[in-house]
Design goal:
Blueprint lengths: L2 H10 L3 H10 L4 E2 H5 L6 H13 L3 E6 L2 E6 L1 H15 L13
Antiparallel strand pairs: 1-3, 2-3
Length: about 100
């Protein structure tokens, strides 16, 4: 397990607004203008949240004209969904199996 990457993912998910953004993007790609309609914060604040999500690999972006469109990085979302089970199961990949007794 990549502990640094996992911590970065959890840190990105540590804000309720970012979790709400992820939930909205689970329905499909949205432009920044559509996302802003659901929040009581400014465009620079949205940009900050999106930067955190993009740097964590949860969200991807594309630019069309003056608009930014955001969508979930599906492959990384699958990896994210596997993190918790891997942490709570006594699997062969667990660090406890790598420590010599």
């Amino acid at each position: 397990m990549d502990y640094e990457r996992t911590a970065k993912l959890f840190k990105a998910l540590g804000d309720s607004k970012r979790v709400q953004i992820i939930d909205m993007l689970s329905c499909g790609e949205l432009c920044a203008c559509d996302l802003l309609e659901h929040f009581d914060f400014t465009q620079p604040t949205l940009s900050h949240h999106m930067k955190v999500l993009i740097n964590a690999g949860i969200v991807q972006t594309r630019k069309s004209g003056t608009w930014h469109y955001y969508s979930l990085n599906e492959q990384n979302m699958i990896s994210l969904s596997e993190i918790i089970p891997n942490l709570v199961q006594n699997s062969k990949a667990c660090i406890c199996h790598k420590v010599e007794n």
